Amino acid sequence: MDRYEEIRKSIINFRDERDWKQFHNPKDIAISLNIEAGELLECFQWKSNHDIEEILKSSKRESIEDEIADVANYLILLCNELDVNLFDVVERKIEKNKVKYPVDKFKGSSKKYNE
Amino acid sequence: MDRYEEIRKSIINFRDERDWKQFHNPKDIAISLNIEAGELLECFQWKSNHDIEEILKSSKRESIEDEIADVANYLILLCNELDVNLFDVVERKIEKNKVKYPVDKFKGSSKKYNE
Amino acid sequence: MDRYEEIRKSIINFRDERDWKQFHNPKDIAISLNIEAGELLECFQWKSNHDIEEILKSSKRESIEDEIADVANYLILLCNELDVNLFDVVERKIEKNKVKYPVDKFKGSSKKYNE
Amino acid sequence: MDRYEEIRKSIINFRDERDWKQFHNPKDIAISLNIEAGELLECFQWKSNHDIEEILKSSKRESIEDEIADVANYLILLCNELDVNLFDVVERKIEKNKVKYPVDKFKGSSKKYNE
């Protein structure tokens, strides 16, 4: 069993032990993903890139890692709920992005495809 | 090479071909993660759980999967930038959550640990 | 002086007493607005509409009002920073939305204009 | 009638003409506020403070103002739905923040009250 599958099972097991499946509809999981993404962003609020480098070398690093884990947790739960293979959809999206952002047009540019 | 590592390399390769590393500081990646999480949530805006089930069976399913992929893309980029092993931090967080949310106190409850 | 202007001045005064203008660039204020919007949404996480009605009648109501205030605070700060008249832009947007969402096409529908 | 009240009535009128009250429960409005806050943040994604100054002087300024208006729109709708006086709760929160962030402790610092 690969690592992702192992972790997905741990997350589902954690949930089922607490009888939380009843709360885990796709909409509420997507809400939770947004809340956790906001908490992750909060780690960088008002900070310069230099400040952030310092934080990452300090004891606060673990709290940032924990916020990353919370985002991942809900992403995995959402994929589980929607019966989505996370790796398959990411690979497909990379292929789409190659078409959307051709190298010769977007090299070195932060513009969006529709700008 | 496992699937995650393969995809991480595809994402970094996609980025480097476009010379986008210069934009990918942790703060802007976390911003992007929030924006994509919002776009994912938008798929469920104003929709009931029943509506969402119908959408998931329709041709709109792929656009939801694409938003999931976009969130995953930035999560993987952030881990890459911060030199974080995503699976390690998720596993550690599950262990922390077991302490934070003991089964006997939280079974069947949507309360937060500090409520 | 109207109420909005009075409050805007209180917010700026609060900020200047703490010498926080140095942090208040538009990007970080927009980040803060997102974080606070996430905290407001957290009040409704996992809750049904019925649960929310109960919460609004309970002592937790004030914490929801405080999150609303936090969102408003950053919205007012952003308008101040960008020299935007909030009421003017809202009125202009209502007019645009009337064109984007004509009554005869969108009455009773939660569809988006591009759906 | 003051400007805020005038605009609140325009927003409610816009909504009622389209028979959209049925969708406007507090949770979905808070979701919408998050989505719009994300779209506002997207205007600043990958941009430096200098880039943003340039954007604000360009024809793209109006699209930023429109996103601000969208956030305000849902904030006003939420206050309307929860029967909250926006100005009252902001004023109360400023008073709370004065206690939470005493000038002598937080002057010139971007730390949070619990840091």
From TrEMBL, chains A, B, C, D:
GO MF, any single term: dCTP diphosphatase activity
Annotated signal sequence range: none
Pfam families referenced in this protein's UniProt entry, alphabetically: MazG-like (PF12643)
GO terms for biological process, alphabetical: dCTP catabolic process; DNA protection
Domain of life: Bacteria
Cellular component GO terms, alphabetical: cytosol
InterPro entries: dCTP_Pyrophosphatase (IPR052555), DCTPP (IPR025984)
PANTHER family referenced in this protein's UniProt entry, alphabetically: DCTP PYROPHOSPHATASE 1
Name listed for the protein in its UniProt record: NTP pyrophosphatase, house-cleaning of non-canonical NTPs
